[in-house]
Amino acid sequence: MSSTCDNELGARREQGPEALVALSQLALDHMEQGVCVYDADNRIVLVNQRYLSLFDMSGDIVRVGTSYREVLAHSAGRGNFPESELDALYSARIAQIAAGKPFRTEQRLATGLVMSLELKPLPGGGWMTICDDVPRLARLEAELRVQTERSQHALANMSHGLIMYDADSRVVVCNDRFLNLYNLDPQIVQPGVSHRAVLDHWVSRGNQPGMPTDEFRSSRLEDVRTRREKSLLVMRYDGRMVQTVSRFLPDGGWVTVHEDVTERLQYEETLRQQNFILDAALENMAHGLALYDSDMRLRVCNTTYRKIYLLSPEETRPGTHLAELIERSMANGAFASEYSPGEITEAARARIASRDRSPMRRRMSNGTVVSVRYCALPEGGFVATYEDITERERVIEQLSEQYRRFDAALNNMSQGLCMLDASLHVIVCNRRYVEMYGMSPDIVKPGVSMREIMEHSCELGIHPNMTGAKLYADYVERLREGEHTLHRHLSDGRIIKLNHKRMEHGGWVVTYEDVTERHKAQARVAHMARHDSLTDLPNRTLFREKMSEGLNQVAIAGGAMAVLCFDLDNFKTVNDRLGHAAGDRLLRWVAARLKENVGEHDTVARLGGDEFAVLQRGPQPQSAEKLARRLVEVLGHPPPLESQSIHVGASVGIAIAPDHGLDADELMKCADLALYQAKARGRGAYQLFEPEMEEEARSRHALEQDLRGALEAHEFHLVFQPQMRLESSELTGFEALLRWRHPSRGFISPAEFVPIAEENGLIVPIGEWGLRTACVTAASWPDVTVAVNLSPVQFRSRGLVAMVTSALAEAGLPPQRLQLEGTETALLDDSEATIEILHQLRALGIRVSLDDFGVGYSSLSYLRKFPFDRIKIDRSFVGTLGESPESVAIVRTIASLGSVLGVETTAEGVETEEQLDFVRECGCTAVQGYYFGKPCPASEVGRTIETLNTVRRVA
Length: 955
Hints:
This protein is α+β, with helices and mostly antiparallel strands.
């Protein structure tokens, strides 16, 4: 065996350099690049077939020994460059070669190929040319350019602002919509700028985050740190509202879309369009070359190979085995592998044996990626080429990532998007578009025509009463008109808004937005603007429109129309006693009863609070009076609320057109005046407008104006009426009664001015004046009480107890000598709060009376909740005792009730001896009335006391 090896070595020594050259030639002929090597005399030493084929040159001419000038002349003859340029080109190249430094150049051949030429000087003299074509790079650049244009089209046509950050919180891309939305400077907000810098610039432009600026910055930075997706509502510099939605990407970056939602706050929530722009990348390849014999031992290699694998010339001496080269390269740190050098070598052997020329990727320790190819030689051995594909890999990876990001942005848009070419075929569409129409993704995909899509959607029944052909024809016709927006009403009730934008190089970008809820919201807003939110009845605005329409019809066609204004009696009591929720239920009940009882063409409206109105056509005033009677009866019997019976009614004012006018404002004024008269009659009634009511209203207004200055002008005074105990005929005290002496009208009845004072709140200061005056006056009397009436308004005002305490203290009147009288109306206004006030007054020692008992609702629950000292029976019953058995029964019942409860019962309005005998017989304990004395001024109280005491002694 040793002898055989010696023979082979001897044979190779005998062959000498020629064998090595032959092997080199064989390796060169299998390279993908063209190679031509020249000696120091510029004559060919080696040339491969790839070099000849690239330049379309003859091997008979371009061969070993041919001079460089002859090569150039032959190349010019083949049309690779003009022959006129031969001398200049030769001189320039020789000068560059003589400089001793490698250089690159490009040359376009007659075949159309663009050649990349790399000329390198050789260490021992001479030089070499390595050639390669570059169309692949050009094709990649073209592909990237087309994709970039499409991305820019999609991004520029988004209706949302978009900004994308990378994992280092720096801007990747943002669109013009984002910059314009916030009035941002594109010189500041651009790729590479930090997230913090964008925030600072955003705030400096007057945009408001809805929280302190520092807090906003901290919050957003924390969101980025924790990768917390968030939706924010911010205010733009001009007051418009923008919603931002952030979503984080798996690579550590995130996308934020910004949508102007100023109008959507009134309509319904959506999100920003997302899009990405693809970055272009170019490949720059470098190659290494190594020639191995059949024993996998190195024969020759170039410098690029050594650089890639960090090998020195000593380590790559000819004869070194591939396994040893791998081992040395790994030891030098060029690359690491989970496989041993032997295993890698065996894998290479297997690829060579199977003639597998596919590339292998190897990642080097310095981060570069090398493509390794093994090409088996016919005579044995193989050629290995090593191409640095790091840049290509980076560009491909970046391009894939851009595609992924673009796809992620596209499919995370709240809107559907479809990009069409000039022939209306789909270039790209997102998932939202397909899902929005419920179509099959197997049909709706790039390349399909819009005609096919529309036929598919019509087959699904999406477009009611429409064929695909008609839908497509209409669509094409609309596109001829240019950029436009249209709305599709789908069979399931949804409304889709389509917005069409032209692309610069032809075709369309179409966005699809579901605006169903927005349209519903608009309809609801339009409805709510003219309807009451609680009862859904027409509101004052719609009522006035209907009234104007009705008045026009009356003016043109004749006939009559009535306006009925309703006001609920004692509605505030329900609110105060049972709460506003109960009050709202009552209002809805009233609205339902009104709608049930009016005619089909009548209009019922809620004007506000407890005010309602009806427009009624027909014979007038008969129809209006009939309706008013029925509604007063119906509304006077409401259902229980909160398991408690309630006492409300309705008062109605009626005005008739044309009798009372054809102007809406005038007619409403007439109905309001009639309503006021109805309430003045005791509520639960209706009143037809009469012309004299206007004069009464003016008179009442004048009286109200005079009332405002009456207290300051000292026009009020008190009179006092005695109160007697029946059993002993003893004087127990006086009731203080308010009187007004007008400077020009004379004496004005309390029945006339007190209701006005209660309506405008003047009763509070007037009542306080009366209480303080009564206390001061009574302080000078002997040991008798003074009774003062309190209005319901005074019970509702704050500080009643404090005011009474102050009045007693200032007058020096013992609390036991003060008696406060309140009507059932006052107590019904707010039972719990009023009862609490009564308890506080009682705790001071003040006596409390229930006035006018029997004329109101006579709710016995108040007698249970609070132990009154006295119940006063209204004069209306006492005055009819001799005529009405019912009055006798009522007085007896109240007196009996007082006896059982241990409460005094005072009969008011006793004017005759017969009435006195009646109330005594009925069981009343005290009386008050003209029989014992008329109300007298404070100066006459002493004489009245003396007179009544004398009468008592005589009796």
